[in-house]
Design a protein that fits this description.
This protein has helices at about 50-60, 80-90, 105-110, 115-120, 125-135, 150-165, 180-200, 210-215; strands spanning about 5-15, 25-35, 40-45, 65-70, 75, 90-95, 170-175, 200-205, 220-225, 225-230. The chain is α/β, with parallel strands linked by helices and about 240 residues long. The strands form two sheets. A six-stranded mixed sheet has the order 6-7-8-3-9-10, sandwiched between helices. A four-stranded antiparallel sheet has the order 2-1-4-5, covered by helices on one side.
């Protein structure tokens, strides 16, 4: 699948914590990278290299200290919190290592949570979309089950459907298979690739698994808060 228009553009992004304090530390040291629509990229690097911090900046969960971040052509620096929230809801989906499903809610109710947060209610059209997504991830028979009644892989599939319910242009996945066994990990990753091919959704997947990174279209490696490598994977699955 060919990449399209620019989706994210980072230029010399730095992130510091405890600014002005004796404990001030800089985690990202001038990161520059771009991602186009319909790309599927792995983000790799050793522990402490800044992967999660970069993902939080990309996800508009933490502000950068300096630099430029353009999301779908719009500079995010200086945007008010409500504007950032709307942009995050409209553009981004999130999948984490731990699914963070609400235990008292059914699979279907968990998938509709982003809709409820964004709109204050769940319109019939969005409820239908949530059902279709659960069917697409192989959970047609589990829509009314609560997380405790589902396996780890099934719970992560619910989380993937939840990430897609608002039709984001980009899904940020932080170790989405890190809590799963090898076979289930392969199944979940294959599902992410299928969604990418069928729906054109862009993905950035943080992973420590070199097997999964090799199945992405592109590998971005962070070392000590800087991009050490950014290259296409010629044999991506």
């Amino acid at each position: 699948m060919q990449a399209g228009e620019p989706l994210i553009e980072l230029a010399q992004v730095r992130k510091r914590y405890n600014v002005g304090q004796p404990s001030e530390v800089e985690v990202l040291h001038g990161v520059s990278l771009a991602l186009r629509t319909r790309e599927f990229a792995a983000l790799i690097g050793p522990s402490g290299s800044g992967k999660s911090t970069l993902l939080n900046v990309l996800g508009l969960l933490e502000p950068m200290t300096s630099g430029s971040y353009r999301l779908q052509g719009r500079e995010v620096a200086g945007l008010a919190d409500d504007a950032l929230t709307r942009m995050r809801q409209r553009t981004l989906g999130f999948v984490f290592q731990f699914h963070h499903l609400l235990p008292a809610f059914s699979a279907l109710e968990n998938v509709t949570l982003p809709v409820l947060a964004a709109e204050g209610r769940v319109p019939a059209q969005q409820l239908t979309r949530a059902r279709e997504l659960l069917a697409a991830v192989g959970l047609s028979a589990a829509m009314d089950k609560r997380p405790a009644q589902l396996s780890g892989g099934m719970q992560q599939r619910v989380a993937i459907a939840r990430a897609l319910v608002l039709q984001p242009a980009l899904v940020l996945a932080d170790e989405p298979t890190g809590n799963l066994d090898t076979a289930t990990s392969d199944e979940v990753f294959t599902l992410l690739r299928r969604i990418h091919h069928e729906r054109g959704t862009s993905f950035i997947v943080v992973t420590h698994d070199p097997r999964l990174a090799a199945r992405c279209d592109r590998v971005i490696e962070l070392v000590d808060g800087q991009v050490a490598r950014d290259e296409a994977v010629p044999t991506a699955a």
